[in-house]
Amino acid sequence: MGTDLGVLAVPDDVEPGDDLETHLGEAFTVRRLRGPDLFHHFERTGAPMVPRDIGLVIGETGIARGDRVLDAGTGTGVLAASMARAGASVVSYERDPEFAEVARENMELGGVADAVDVRTGDLREAVDDLEPSSFDVLTLDTGDAADVVTHAPDLLVDGGFVAVYSPFIESTRAVVEAAREADLSNVRTRETIQREMQFDDRGSRPSTAPVGHTGYLTIARNV
Ligand SMILES: C[S@@+](CC[C@H](N)C(=O)[O-])C[C@H]1O[C@@H](n2cnc3c(N)ncnc32)[C@H](O)[C@@H]1O
């Protein structure tokens, strides 16, 4: 591995806590990956969801140990891996075969390959083959999510949740309309936005850096 402190040879059997040295004699200590590290260390394909939005998805849907989650598109796989780390078993569809392959490698890196089944394919074409009422939560991060939301009442258990993330308002509106049409309950959308705070010698205030909009999160429930 190339670093700005020299080349680091990382053995296959490396363990957290091990000390390694670059060819220039610079010391590194091995640490176990934690959730937010997935965002920085997974190989990137589809734009990964940021940690705060993952927190919202998990918080709003109550994803917990033992839950079965249907997810699309896998993309980089940060959301899928984070849900698996929270204890869910995840079936995640990715229509781009190369992205799907990278996502499988990312699941290995994240230690959740057993809990995330990355399937190559378009979820819209696969929904009819999935067992009815076999998922607790449906998470969608695709521009065509509205086409899948239509099937949510068939896919979800009674009381299950849908969470749709979209950077754009047009696809968000389509999702809301599809959710209402499908008779899902408590359909609500919130913009996900955060202001970073600055603390310096002159005083404390919100950062003047660009507004932190990342997307719109729509939540609905199958009741
Ligand atoms: C924004 S990325 C998802 C990122 C992911 N949530 C994460 O945290 O890494 C969207 C992905 O969805 C895939 N995609 C779009 N529509 C799809 C569909 N109908 N079925 C399966 N994958 C789809 C795209 O190829 C892309 O990789």
UniProtKB/TrEMBL annotation:
<dbReference type="InterPro" id="IPR049470">
    <property type="entry name" value="TRM61_C"/>
</dbReference>
<dbReference type="GO" id="GO:0160107">
    <property type="term" value="F:tRNA (adenine(58)-N1)-methyltransferase activity"/>
</dbReference>
<keyword id="KW-0949">S-adenosyl-L-methionine</keyword>
<dbReference type="Pfam" id="PF08704">
    <property type="entry name" value="GCD14"/>
</dbReference>
<keyword id="KW-0808">Transferase</keyword>
<feature type="domain" description="tRNA (adenine(58)-N(1))-methyltransferase catalytic subunit TRM61 C-terminal">
    <location>
        <begin position="52"/>
        <end position="198"/>
    </location>
</feature>
<keyword id="KW-0819">tRNA processing</keyword>
<dbReference type="GO" id="GO:0031515">
    <property type="term" value="C:tRNA (m1A) methyltransferase complex"/>
</dbReference>
<protein>
    <submittedName>
        <fullName>Methyltransferase domain-containing protein</fullName>
    </submittedName>
</protein>
<dbReference type="InterPro" id="IPR014816">
    <property type="entry name" value="tRNA_MeTrfase_Gcd14"/>
</dbReference>
<dbReference type="InterPro" id="IPR029063">
    <property type="entry name" value="SAM-dependent_MTases_sf"/>
</dbReference>
<keyword id="KW-0489">Methyltransferase</keyword>
<dbReference type="GO" id="GO:0030488">
    <property type="term" value="P:tRNA methylation"/>
</dbReference>
